[in-house]
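Whiteboard transcription, Tuesday session. T.W. wrote the structure tokens on the left side:
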């Protein structure tokens, strides 16, 4: 499987490993690879040749924890579809909620879909 690099990556994992194992001076390696000495220094001192994760470690949200718990409870207890859940949310917790925002919240918090919830119900 080909290696997938982010668009601003300057080196492959193979090159990064070579930097760590090489005894050549940083300037020589930088010139050979066509990168800055800072880049070579960074990869020589990193423990892992993989790309470090970028972006926030925790997504900031304006939802209060009690609102998320209320949405979780309503979804699981009453099996409300997204539009009905949105209506209840707008009425009782956040009147300016957008459908897409609520959908993203459900995904981010890994709340089960209606299909999954209905499958988990005991058959009659």
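and on the right, the sequence the group agreed on:
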């Amino acid at each position: 499987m080909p290696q997938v690099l982010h668009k601003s990556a300057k080196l492959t994992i193979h090159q990064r490993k070579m930097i760590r194992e090489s005894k050549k001076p940083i300037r020589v390696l930088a010139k050979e690879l066509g990168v800055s000495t800072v880049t070579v220094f960074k990869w020589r001192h990193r423990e892992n040749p993989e790309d470090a994760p970028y972006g926030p470690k925790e997504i900031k949200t304006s939802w209060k924890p009690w609102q998320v718990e209320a949405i979780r409870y309503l979804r699981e207890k009453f099996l409300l579809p997204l539009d009905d859940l949105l209506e209840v949310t707008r009425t009782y917790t956040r009147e300016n909620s957008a459908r897409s925002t609520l959908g993203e919240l459900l995904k981010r918090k890994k709340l089960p879909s209606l299909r999954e919830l209905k499958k988990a119900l005991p058959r009659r």
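Someone added at the bottom: The chain has a mean pLDDT of 87.
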